[in-house]
Amino acid sequence: MSYSHKYTWAALPRTQRGTPLVLGGDPKGRNFLYTNGNSVIIRDIENPAISDTYTEHSCQVNVAKYSPSGFYISSGDASGKIRIWDTVNKEHILKNEFQPIGGPIKDIAWSADNQRMVAVGEGRERFGHVFMSETGTSVGEISGQSKPINSVDFKPSRPFRIVTASEDNTLAVFEGPPFKFKCTKQEHTRFAQAVRYSPDGSLFASAGFDGKIFLFDGATSELKGEIGSPAHKGGVYGIAWSPDGKQLLSCSGDKTCAIWDVETMQRTVTFNMGNAVENQQVSCLWQGKHLLSVSLSGVINYLDIENPDKPLQILMGHNKPITCLALHPDRHTVYTASHDGCVTAWNVATGSGRHVAGAGHGNQVQAMAAAAGALLSCGIDDTLRRAAPPAEGEVPAYTDVSIPLGSQPRGMDHIIEDDTTIVATVKELAVVIGTSKQSSLPLSYEPTCVSIDTKSRHVAVGGADNKVHMYTLDVRTLTPGVTLDHLGPVTDVAFSPDSKYLVASDANRKLILYSTDEYKLAHNKEWGFHTARVNCVAWSPDSTRIASGSLDTCIIIWSVDTPNKHTIIKNAHPQSQITGLAWLDDETVVSVGQDANTRVWTVPKP
């Protein structure tokens, strides 16, 4: 059995309050770059559903930038390492790895001839370094500033200059090569956060947390003037030049973006992005005809100059680890939820995501189930909530109904026909019909997961006591039945769509298949090819295959008819455990993981 990766619904940039984010642009104008965790994400600017991920860093990546030739990307991480890797090949072959400073890298810039690089950040003995991109040999010193450096840029034309922006409120200018300190600029009164040369190198602009933007001469570094007075009411997080160098885009913590005319130094367009804290704008990019900004919530906005109050397009998704997944019964929509309580509805056909609106759980969603007219979710706020679409075809929004559960939920399942939900909490099994809790059964063990067979109305509950506990549901009462022993805590259970089998996975790396007539082993094999705890299992719609996802980053496809054969999708989510799986059809699997990405796989039948 072979498999292929179909596409990825990409994670959003990982943002942090009070910290600017750097977006990288492709010199050919096709792609843009950002980082999330230890991934660098490359997205097509025209069709952002097309994305690629680079995951070779061993710790959090802070910045990624294209080389001026467009053939390489350099990415810098929290340990001070820079990796330079190929953009042309699918494998992204590593060209070089350097350690220019001994702490988190915050920004990178290339010289126009692709030969020199400068990296800045929060080192122990120095805050930046200039080196050759081929060999790593030093071509100058970055000195003269007393606190971490937030931003850097290389003058794109000769004579080369480097300018840096630091948390000591100053800008520093360096001449070279070899690069030597020339002067500091002390116009800003708070952290200097961004500095960028114009495309022809004749000017450079700086922005800071004092809300001000200043313009300087690119060659002499003399102050030309202040743009706006001040430019923004809040700190300015990022600036980007238009391709012709006549305009400047800025983004700010005052929840606006603005376009400035460089000649008159006056504002020409204001983009109001909203009123909530998560509408603070932490990054911007001007690439060709596209103007992008990133909100604190991580969403990417395509700004519209003609209609500044409504973005052309908003890219939504997750920027925190995804904890669970649910598939709509029509298989056209996939719901994913992350540990910050954000729930996204993905359109399977287009790959576009939209957030489920309304007051949700506000923190980690533990489990979800999708019915024809509603989405049900339970979270660690100890409630069960419903989201219903306001109109047919719309994305659901949370209603005001929240059903208190009394203790923390661990798992849930739902019967669509009579709107019955069974929630396993730390203390009990609760039976909820519609929006009211009908009954509960106290438990002597800690449950981990639930599955209901709609035909027999049997309920399987996995326990941390290494057992699967069987119950029978009669309208609103649960009657205990047999228990099935495992060698480790049970992590997931699932009845097959044809009601003939029950599969259970455990922390001891095993999957066990039971036949449902007497809950005996369906065949004398236990499936144990994972190398770590199995987190989740899912049945194909025709009940012939099972997908399992594990802490070992792999997905394995098992066959019920030929138990000796299996397909391993290695590194399905590199450096990230798999947290949820579902089958879109008999040959397509969707998986989610801690890397905040949602991936779709084709697994043809043998």
Task: Give a concise summary.
The protein is mainly beta and 606 residues long. Among the domains are: 12-229, YVTN repeat-like/Quinoprotein amine dehydrogenase (Methylamine Dehydrogenase, Chain H, 7 Propeller), CATH 2.130.10.10; 444-606, YVTN repeat-like/Quinoprotein amine dehydrogenase (Methylamine Dehydrogenase, Chain H), CATH 2.130.10.10.
Describe the structure.
By secondary structure, this protein is mainly β. Among the domains are: 12-229, Methylamine Dehydrogenase, Chain H, CATH 2.130.10; 444-606, YVTN repeat-like/Quinoprotein amine dehydrogenase (Methylamine Dehydrogenase, Chain H, 7 Propeller), CATH 2.130.10.10. It contains no helices and 56 strands. It has a 4-stranded antiparallel β-sheet, with no helix packed on it. It has a 4-stranded antiparallel β-sheet with strand order 2-3-4-5, with no helix packed on it. Strand 51 and strand 52 (555-559) form a beta hairpin. GO terms for molecular function: actin filament binding.
Question: Count of DSSP E strands?
Answer: 56
Q: Can you tell me the CATH topology of the domain at 12-229?
A: Methylamine Dehydrogenase, Chain H
- How would you describe the shape? elongated
> End-to-end distance, in Å?
5 Å
- Give the count of helical stretches: 0
Main sheet specs: 4 strands, antiparallel
Rg over CA atoms, rounded to whole Å, is 27 Å
Q: Which structural category fits the helices and strands?
A: mainly beta
CATH class of the domain at 12-229: Mainly Beta
Helix content: under 10%
Query: CATH-wise, what's the superfamily of the domain at 12-229?
Result: YVTN repeat-like/Quinoprotein amine dehydrogenase
Judging by the overall fold, what is the CATH architecture of the domain at 12-229? Answer: 7 Propeller
Indicate the low-confidence ranges by residue numbers: none
Output the strand order for the largest sheet.
1-56-55-54
β content, as a range?
over 45%
Question: pLDDT average, as an integer?
Answer: 93
